[in-house]
Write a structure and sequence with these properties.
The structure is a homotetramer of 205-residue chains.
Chain A (H helix, E strand, L loop, with lengths): L2 H17 L6 H8 L3 H8 L2 H16 L4 H4 L6 H18 L1 H12 L4 H27 L9 H17 L1 H7 L7 H24 L2
Helix pairs in contact in A: 1-2, 1-4, 1-7, 2-3, 3-4, 4-8, 6-8, 6-9, 6-11, 8-9, 9-11
Chain C binds a DNA duplex (21 and 21 nucleotides) through helix 3.
Chain lengths: 205, 205, 205, 205
Amino acid sequence: MSDKKIHILKEAEKVIAAKGYDAASVRDIAEAAGVNLAMISYYFGSKEKLMEALLRYRMEFMALKMEHLKKDSSISPAEKIQALMQAYIERIFNNQDFAKIIMAEQVIRKHPATLALLRQLKLNNYKSLNDIVEEGIKKNFFKKDTEAFFLFTTLTGVVNHIIINKQFYIDFHQLENVNEEKINEMLAQKTFIHIHKIFKLFLEK
Amino acid sequence: MSDKKIHILKEAEKVIAAKGYDAASVRDIAEAAGVNLAMISYYFGSKEKLMEALLRYRMEFMALKMEHLKKDSSISPAEKIQALMQAYIERIFNNQDFAKIIMAEQVIRKHPATLALLRQLKLNNYKSLNDIVEEGIKKNFFKKDTEAFFLFTTLTGVVNHIIINKQFYIDFHQLENVNEEKINEMLAQKTFIHIHKIFKLFLEK
Amino acid sequence: MSDKKIHILKEAEKVIAAKGYDAASVRDIAEAAGVNLAMISYYFGSKEKLMEALLRYRMEFMALKMEHLKKDSSISPAEKIQALMQAYIERIFNNQDFAKIIMAEQVIRKHPATLALLRQLKLNNYKSLNDIVEEGIKKNFFKKDTEAFFLFTTLTGVVNHIIINKQFYIDFHQLENVNEEKINEMLAQKTFIHIHKIFKLFLEK
Amino acid sequence: MSDKKIHILKEAEKVIAAKGYDAASVRDIAEAAGVNLAMISYYFGSKEKLMEALLRYRMEFMALKMEHLKKDSSISPAEKIQALMQAYIERIFNNQDFAKIIMAEQVIRKHPATLALLRQLKLNNYKSLNDIVEEGIKKNFFKKDTEAFFLFTTLTGVVNHIIINKQFYIDFHQLENVNEEKINEMLAQKTFIHIHKIFKLFLEK
DNA sequence: AATGAATGAGCGTTCATTCAT
DNA sequence: CATGAATGAACGCTCATTCAT
């Protein structure tokens, strides 16, 4: 993909995360990207296809491809889970705009083309988690009776809601003057510890 | 509030939950409610004020007013937490449309008027939780080192993400033909058990 | 149909006849009719539907409903043909804008919805002519071997091409300063005589 | 003119005949001709000038240049008329797309540049006819009182309307499965006979 | 109180054309 | 000679809202 297309996608991501897909006009996006209005259609075909392109572009980085981990028997299931958690938290925290867009897209809108993409992403991530859990159970490291679905929604739900409530956290703890990067780091770390404890509770014998 | 207004709000809730605020046109809402288009502005002033009215109307039921519990010293903090969890899960599951609207509103849009309302709701709910936690700590029932913020985001994050991923769960477990009411009940119960375990982990000594 | 709708249709007819359907923008039509741009969609739904409404509105006057003539046996087939010719010439000359629109629509564009309407109009007119011709043949007044199709295309082709070439006629005979009404009357009369002779040639024994 | 230009013109002719000038986008034409979009402007300057080029290119074949006939006194005026009729019918039937474009252009659009060209074409054709008619009158072969204008509009009107109504004719006589070439031949022949009779009526003493 | 009619603003998209290479 | 990239203008249409009744 051309640099210009990527540039437009990145600016579009900001605008759409801030306003939502419907309220983000093509004119808004074009202005933010510093390109002519007609370029959007020229490059992507339509607003909807730009959205699709954005999802495809970012999903590559969002997807938890744990293939290299799965087959490595020198790493314990517990360590794999830890790595997956770490990767997910990192990715969400490193692209909070995209995380918001995905959240909004799941809750409302549900455009057919994006729906299929999101389902695929979700399925892949879910399976990555599930595979490790099943491996852990088989190898007798993990408890048998834990539904992966609840672990999955816990991981995604907690991380995403921490993103949503970040401003609330800042306000509550009066961190307005703290560097945002610092806050993100701190929150990410605390989030990891928090979820790690939960996963241990549900998985480790 | 007049019955007609409430009727419009309820229909608007469905439409907005399905399409999102921006994509839900006043025409859509008027048609769904079976009222004249001009009635919306006539009754509520504007689309935005209808949204505000909807938030106010539903937030009364969403807010976790635990005053009657707080002062009752015959109930243990653990039981209070349990009651709060139960109440929250019940409310989200009983009004999934509104839950979606609130989620979308928090993630995107962020209209000043609604922002303040949502912040208030969040603060109230957070404080309800926090009060109980602090009481538990003071009474030496709960661990000292647990941040209420993470308990809060866990409760809200998990419950809301289970709502978001309900369809995914149905597809995955092939429950397409199961009565939706049944699925809701089952999921709500499992969600309660799941979160209850987490809370125990973080709070109980 | 409301007066305002009819007013818009009449102004639209002028604009579309002058520029052609595609070049006549909704903005042009709205301006010509002195109404707000959005009124066009409000009243007619879309530009295409306005066109359809125009066709339906004018076709009532364009159709050669000769039922009252057909059954009247006191009128000879020759007189009936004469009446039909007269009626057709009159209608085309009295609404030259619409005649042009129909011509252009038949030649190019051919939008499904209008295509069906025009086909119906053509079929009705053709049948009106054909019925009389067949009656004349049966009653032994008319020649047997004349194809109605060529009479039909002669009538419509000649009349419409005289409309098309009216300006050419005016220029050629330097009638720039003659009242248009006069020219129309004169041309209509000459056209009638011309076609009458042709029809006599092909029909009368 | 280069082969490529001619190729573009021929493809443009098809597209414009099918959709009309305004609805035929430069993109459509470029795609149909298999050339780069920018080539159109590059070769012809603009869409309008392409249209002009098309008119100029085709008008050479459309113009009824009867000079060689006019001066030949061994051919009777009646035979000359016949030759002109034949030539006109042939040209229209052999290039129905262009005939449609000319018709549409005369009825609507009327762009200054094309208007002048078409007027010239019309004038030339009209004069070719008129010259022969006048010669016939002078030589006492033809009736005096026939206006050439009505002969002209009869020739052009009937032929062009037969083209317009060709599909109607096919539908009516259920000739859907007959080879189009065959239908054209048959119609052209019938048209010639038909118009020939009319011209005889109006001209021969 | 209730509503059909109307409106200005803005939407996503496509247009013919130009420009840099 | 040829073309991919880019652009300003305009397109048909829908929006939330207002107004006259």
